[in-house]
Amino acid sequence: MAAKISQMNINNPENRSALITESDETIVKVEGLKKLFPLTTGMFKRSTSFIHAVDDVDFYIREGESLGLVGESGSGKTTVGKLLVRLLEPTNGHIRMLLDVADQDIARLRGRSLKRFRWHVQMIFQDPYESLNPRRTIFDTVSEPLSVQGIGDIAQREDRVAELLTMVGLAPAETFMFRFPHELSGGQRQRIAIARALIVSPSFVVADEPTSMLDVSIRTGVMNLMRDLADQLGVTYLYITHDLAVARYMTERLAVMYLGKIVEMGETEDVLANPLHPYTRALLSAVPVPDPTLKREPPNIKGSIAKAIDPIPRCRFYDRCPLASRVCEDNDHPPLEEKGPDHWTACYMV
Amino acid sequence: MTDIITKSPALQTTPLATDIPVWRVRLRLLWRGIRTNVALFTENPIGLVGLAIIVVFASLIVIHPILMKSVWDRNVYDPVLGIDLAIPFHPAPPSPEHLLGTDPLGRDVLSQLMHGTRSAFILGSLAAIVNFIVATTIGAIAAYFSGVVDSIFMRIADLVLMMPVITILIVLGSLLNLEMLHLAIVIGILSGLGGTTIIIKSQALTIKVRTYIEAARVAGGNDFHIIFKHIVPNLLPLSFLYMTFTVSAAIAIEAVLSFFGILNIRMSWGVMIHTTQYAGYLLDMSKWWLIFPSSVSISLLTAAFYLVGRALDEIVNPRLRKR
Ligand SMILES: Nc1ncnc2c1ncn2[C@@H]1O[C@H](COP(=O)(O)OP(=O)(O)O)[C@@H](O)[C@H]1O
Ligand code: SF4
Ligand SMILES: [Mg+2]
Predict the structure, then answer these.
(1) Which stretches of chain A are assigned E, i.e. beta strand?
(2) Does residue A10 lie within any of the structural domains?
(3) What's the Rg (C-alpha) of chain A?
(4) pTM reported for the whole predicted model
(5) Are the CB atoms for B101 and B90 separated by under 8 Å?
(6) Subunit contact B220:A132, Cβ cutoff 8 A
(7) Would you call A103 exposed, middle or buried from its count of C-beta atoms within 10 A (0-12, 13-18, 19+)?
């Protein structure tokens, strides 16, 4: 694969250096990441209120592993994903990635280096009916990262697109190349989106609930495909989902988000088997249990997720927490602390 | 690979093989798109009536030079310089030699009408093209960049909308030597900056927020790429629709300005009305052949383009689309 790309990239064969050599290395490191959205009150008024969509978040992802990001809708998962691919610019914080645009803060990339960054980091979006331009053929869509980056000539791009389409299970590729999205099913469209994301052989891919809009019957196929391709191509995923079963199937490590904060993080199996944070426990009790003999406490959270608009300085989960006490109200949101080996949680009572 | 294609019945419908060059495939796709849209268009009688009228007028444009070269003597039938000296008094009523009679200066009205059709089409299409370029580009750019850029263009649009276009053109026409090309550009720009831009922009705003725009950005596309490869192609149907309305407007405006005699155009339907008026026959119904051919043509052709526009609207406009 790497050989294929460097062969295509006639102009800069040295572009894609193999900086990532050791398998246990951290490929993504996020520190104090923050994104505030101003609430616009009027055309000329300066906004005084902000949605704290992502509020001071730290995490890391090791090369080759998948980090799951789970949480209810509105907890800020998509915003984290968009910050990491630089569709959004962080309000604050640092993003480091082990790429050949290294030594630079991804959060501040501009111009040429930002374009170069897009060689290495791609995104798969939630809704395949929205993420493909209806007026462009499958070839145009899948080859877009190559054509905008000026990689290869038309014939080479055609070969490469055919190769990718075959890889994502759309074979024979020639029958798909010059179709339009409306001629394909949801599952096929999402495979197209996967092909577009992988055509530049990225090191890191943000997958934002890639199967949530698909029919249940075809979800497993797409998930298996993503896992196989990750193994085959050495892709690292940030895998966003609200489904803990999916997270368990797809990820090695897991971060649980609530109102812009990561409240628990660790090995997926560890977090799911031994949840520490009250929110994670509540999430787990809401999941249907396949084993009927297994007893679990009933869900014990009240209300539903709100928006983090200028949040009060106390634990974000306070209003819904069954364990809430004075210390949670009197202090700011608890810091993420290591409570077990690589098992982090943000709660005063654990 | 071909084995799989022939074995699977579902895949046989698209016999695309890699040895077909890309441009051929694209041409075929374009043709297929045109065919489905034509099929949709022909379902609508309104559009077909409009199209029929346009085709009839267009055929006049083709026939005129042929007649001038074969049966019509240039000295007699030239729309501007001809004169029939065999007839003692002009304007003469319709006769076998002059099917629509002659004008006060002794020129053949039918020949003028045919020549005027050409002027109307040229003016209309030029204005429509200018309108298309201005409105689509500005609409897409204003929607994409929003903020200050958008505010500036929208204030200009408001200004243009408030301006009395005819009055301004009359002033311009009396100050400058307005020819057809100038008129087409001015009409195209004014209509393009005003109402059309606002409509195109509101459509562009709905496209700008689609996820495929974000996907294009992640792919590495810059602003230019996103505007012209993603936003503009999705605006084209609506832009084409407004082109037809611009054609109608341009023909009507030309008629009004020519009526006042302030354009430097040698022959057009408006000039025909102006000549009638100048000679004092405008309200003289006994000389009906002077005023009716041109005024009926103006009404018919503007209505025809409008009807085609309405029919396109039903295909293009998601709110009116039947399915
Ligand atoms: N572009 C935006 N402008 C304003 N608010 C936004 C924007 N994007 C997201 N938000 C807000 O940020 C919060 C987190 O949203 P999001 O990241 O989409 O959550 P999730 O993906 O977990 O459902 C929500 O309250 C949402 O309303
Ligand atoms: S810190 Fe307190 S309120 Fe927050 S989750 Fe822990 S127990 Fe609940
Ligand atoms: Mg989301």
Answers:
(1) 26-38, 50-62, 66-70, 92-97, 121-124, 204-208, 236-240, 253-258, 261-267, 337-340, 343-345
(2) no
(3) 21
(4) 0.84
(5) no
(6) no
(7) exposed
Q: Where are the beta strands (DSSP E) in B138-255?
A: none
Q: Which CATH number does the domain housing residue A306 bear?
A: 3.40.50.300
Domain around A275: 16-288+295-345
Establish if A267 belongs to a structural domain: yes
DSSP string across A87-153: SS--SEEEEEE-STTTTS-GGG--HHHHHHHTTTEEEE-S-TTTSS-TTS-HHHHHHHHHHHHT-S-
Greater confidence (A330 vs B17) lies with: A330
Q: Which two tokens stand for residue A270?
A: 């560890």
Nearest residue on chain B to A162, alpha-carbon basis: B18
Residue type, B98: H
CB-CB contact of B243 with B191 (8 Å): no
Q: And the tokens for A92?
A: 């604050």
Which ipTM was obtained for this model?
0.87
Of A266, A201, A214, nearest to A243 by C-alpha is A214
Asked whether the beta carbons of B272 and B293 are under 8 A apart, the reply is yes
Joined tokens for residue B191 = 């209509």
The set of residues, in sequence order, having a beta carbon less than 8 Å from that of A169 and lying 6+ positions away, is: A191, A221, A225
Write the CA distances from A19 to A11, A16, A98, A102, B34, integer angstroms.
20, 9, 7, 9, 50
DSSP type of residue B226: I
For each of chain A's 350 residues, which pLDDT tens digit applies? 343 343 343 333 343 333 333 346 889 999 999 999 998 765 566 667 899 999 999 999 999 999 999 999 999 999 999 999 999 999 999 999 988 655 678 888 888 889 999 999 999 999 999 999 998 999 999 999 999 999 988 889 999 999 999 999 998 988 899 888 999 999 999 999 999 999 999 999 999 999 999 999 999 999 999 999 999 999 999 999 999 999 999 999 999 999 999 999 999 999 999 999 999 999 988 765 555 555 555 555 666 667 788 888 999 999 899 999 999 999 999 999 999 999 999 999 98
Q: Which domains does chain B have, with CATH numbers?
A: 36-87+110-316 (1.10.3720.10)
Give CA–CA dist A95/A107, Å, rounded.
6
DSSP H or E segment with residue A233: helix A216-233
Domains of chain A: total = 1
Residue A8 lies in a domain: no
Neighbours of B273 (CB within 10 A): 20
In a domain, A175, yes or no: yes
- Give the contacts of B283 (CB within 8 A, at least 6 positions apart): none
The residue among A110, A154, A175, A213 with the most chain B CBs within 10 A of its CB, best to mutate, is: A175
Please count the residues of chain B.
323
From the list A85, A136, A175, which residue is nearest B218 (CB)?
A85
In degrees and rounded to multiples of 5, residue B28 shows phi and psi of -65, -40
Tell me which of A163-172, A281-290, B232-241, B265-274 is least confident: A281-290
Residue located via tokens 């009679």: B101
Residue A131 and residue B212: Cβ atoms within 8 Å?
yes
d(CA A327, CA A86): 37
Q: What letters, b where the CB count within 10 A reaches 16 and e where it falls short, cover B31-42?
A: eeeeeeeeebbe
Cα A190 to ligand 3 centroid, rounded to whole Å: 16
Answer yes or no: do B211 and A193 touch at CB < 8 A.
no
How far apart CA A319 and CA A317 sit, in angstroms, is 6
Of A87, A137, A139, the CB nearest to B218: A87
